Amino acid sequence: MRGDVFVNNMTIERGALVYEGDTVYTLGRSFVVLQFTDGSKVTVRPDSQLVLDKYRSNKVQLDLVSGGLRVVTGAIAKSNPENYKVSTKTALMGVRGTEFSVQIVD
């Protein structure tokens, strides 16, 4: 984590926990790496907003509202790739690989 990172409008520090339904915000020149229990790592890039719509033992749904992210998938995407999804305001992506990036350009 570097810079100004917020979860549900509250400043967080390294090691903070995030939960299903939380919204993660980063400001300019800031980023955070979220590590999930299945081994997934999601890097939320500067000036981004990410909603953790669903995170269950067998299903992940991330909603990228603005900015960008980089994902290295874990056990859920490997065992149930159809259950790992990332959505934006214009697209819904199913994950079929182990590493990918998404960037919203306005």
Based on the model shown, name its key terms:
single chain, 106 residues, mainly beta, seven-stranded mixed beta sheet, four-stranded antiparallel beta sheet, 1 helix, 11 strands, 5% helix, globular
Number of helices: 1
What general form does the structure show?
Answer: globular
Spans where pLDDT lies below 50 across 5 or more residues: none
Strand order of the largest sheet: 2-1-3-6-7-9-10
Percent of residues in β-strands: over 45%
The span between the termini is 25 Å
Q: Report on the biggest sheet.
A: 7 strands, mixed
How would you describe this structure to a colleague?
With 106 residues, the chain is mainly beta. The chain contains 1 helix and 11 strands. The chain has one helix at 75-79; strands at 5-7, 10-11, 23-26, 32-35, 41-44, 48-55, 60-66, 68-72, 84-87, 92-94, 99-103. A 7-stranded mixed beta sheet has the order 2-1-3-6-7-9-10, with no helix packed on it. Strand 9 and strand 10 (92-94) form a beta hairpin. The longest helix is centred in the C-terminal third of the chain and has 5 residues, at 75-79. It is globular. The chain starts with a strand and ends with a strand.
